[in-house]
Amino acid sequence: MIRTRFAPSPTGYLHVGGLRTALYSYLFAKKQKGKFLVRIEDTDRERLVADGTLNILQSLDWAGIVQDEGVCLAKDKNQIDQKGDRGPYIQSERLSIYRKYAEELLQKKAAYYCFCMPERLEELRDQQTKNKMPTGYDQHCLKTIPPEEAQKRVKAGERHVVRLAMPKIGETVFFDLIRGEVRIKNELVDDQILIKSDGFPTYHLAVVVDDHTMEISHVIRGEEWISSTPKHLQLYLNFGWKPPEFAHLPLLLNTDKSKLSKRQGDVAVVDYQKKGYLPEALVNFVAFLGWNPGGEQEIFGLDELIKAFSLEKVGKGGSVFNIEKLDWFNKEYLKRLDPAALLKRAWPWLVEAKLIDEKKLEDKKYSDWLARVLMLERERVTTLSELPAAIRFIFSVPDYPVEMLVWKKGTREEVKKVIPDLLAYLETLKDIDWHTKTLEDNIKTWIEANSFQVGSVLWPFRVALSGLEKSPGPFEIAAVLGKAEVVTRLKAAIHKVI
RNA sequence: GGCCCCAUCGUCUAAUGGUUAGGACAUUGCCCUUUCAAGGCGAAAAUACGGGUUCGAUCCCCGUUGGGGCUACCA
Question: In angstroms, how far is B71 C1' from A147 CA?
Fold first, then answer.
């Protein structure tokens, strides 16, 4: 049974790199009918952020990544819940478990108590760096304090930590699913602290204990963990457990190829949510950062991603997070939204912009009309957040300079004649003909019959309706506006030129 | 500094021991056209460098360079 997990620290918001890690873990599990779980790694009490867990879960939920087990959102989506029988899935609720396993390690002499002060450690590191030596703990407490004495000091309440007794001979070799064989000399592996002086485990102990007890088969995580994998493997060995498979993902990069950071743009999933990107676009984009199924298709829904995904096709090099490509994906997904779906997505932005009244959504006729309005701009915006400003001209009679009515190849005199003529003609049209296609056919026929230049009519017509230099076409706008409003706006234009 | 990882157009990437090194985004030209967007057809643009192995290397090996990661009582 394939079981993968995403194990974020609640230190803020879900990072787009985290989203990708979660996504790959999810895709890998789902592809093989396995389980995907979420565990919260909150052993660092200092970096803990209130609501950090909730924020992360909400972003995952928004992205459509659903956990089978572990920490999840409660029904109201504003609270945290847990499901599954291998929990708890929040590390701070598992302290007694870690203590038990640390005790086992201590007994097996695979770990030892250390009473060294931070100052000594710091000095040691300075010395090592100065002498161009690899840094690491010198096993002072292992070598100088007999276990019984250490035991006594601990009982007496002396401040201490528990360290891994790393054998310093030989090398650790493991097979990474993405990178192949990785070898690291054991003498370079530090005697990592396993239990901190505050009683909390460090990542290294907790991750091994949890992945084992939660029966994780594949650990998919960021590249930054490669160098600590030997410590984890040593722990598996000490416990007599079978280690999981490892896959270390390449990093996401800034434009300058440094590790993706807040300094150079938005990195939180919520930032993109707030900017009006569609979750399916972000997910598709992020999936393609470092992975590619090989064909030429680029638009993949979550289900298609599951079908196509494989770790073998994940690249080894880091990928630049390129927002222009994200924009393209977003436009593609916007284009695929039907009017009702577009309205559903755009609604919160329209309300926030105070463009419309939330209560009006109940009114079917109104919401159908609003959906048509949104369709005018669907292919002209890149994000949902641009929609309110883009459709604003529909809601209020536009103000614009008279000169704008004049087509680049036309004259003001021409406008003076054409607009009233057009108005007169439109008034002869029946309401039943008031649709984009029929309007276009009729008006184009009328233009031809009167030997006007197409632009000399359509340009001022469009400007009269929109008040904008750039806008959707006049027929589309007219159809949405309705005959009465079109007449009003044309009269206003006539008033302006004369 | 030490250790580890990585390297194809500007960016995301495909491919092969022998190809005109393919696609997408971005850039750009033309077409369509009432404006914009979309769309259509084009253009420009890459195997980091140096050694091997080989009849032949972008691909395999070594080195160099460059980039990144780790080097915490952070994850």
Answer: 28
The verdict on whether omega for the bond into residue A88 sits within 30 degrees of 0, i.e. cis, is yes
Å from the A331 CA to the B44 C1':
26
Using the CA of A185, give the nucleotide whose C1' is nearest.
B3
Domain's final residue, options A270, A289, A320: A320
pLDDT in tens, A375-407: 999 999 999 999 999 999 999 877 899 999 999
- Looking from the CA of A186 toward its CB, the CA atoms found within 13 Å total 14
Q: Report chain B positions within 7 A of protein CB atoms.
A: 1-8, 10-15, 23-26, 33-38, 67-75
Question: Whole-number Å distance, CA A296 to C1' B27?
Answer: 22
| Lookup result for tokens 């009328």 | A446
Which of A314, A331, A356 has the alpha carbon at shortest distance from A276? A331
pLDDT tens for each residue of A403-443: 999 998 888 889 999 999 999 999 988 877 789 999 999 99
Classify residue A328: in a domain, yes or no. no
Q: Is residue A329 part of a domain?
A: no
> Where is the domain boundary, A197, A232, A249?
A249
Domain extent at residue A188: 94-249
Tell me if A332 is assigned to some domain.
no
Q: Which of A77, A185, A257, A262 is catalytic?
A: A262
How many domains is chain A built from?
A: 4
Q: Within this chain, do residues A280 and A316 fall inside the same structural domain, yes or no?
A: yes
Give the Cα separation of A241 and A230 in Å (integer).
14
Whether A437 sits among the annotated catalytic residues: the reply is no
Q: Is the ipTM of this complex over 0.90?
A: yes
DSSP for A276-326 reads: T--HHHHHHHHHTSSB--SSS-----HHHHHHH--GGGB-SS-EE--HHHH
Same domain? A118 vs A198: yes
Geometric angle at alpha carbon A93, from A91 and A99, rounded to 5°: 80
Beta-strand runs (E) in A335-405: none
Q: Which residues of A are annotated as a binding site?
A: 262
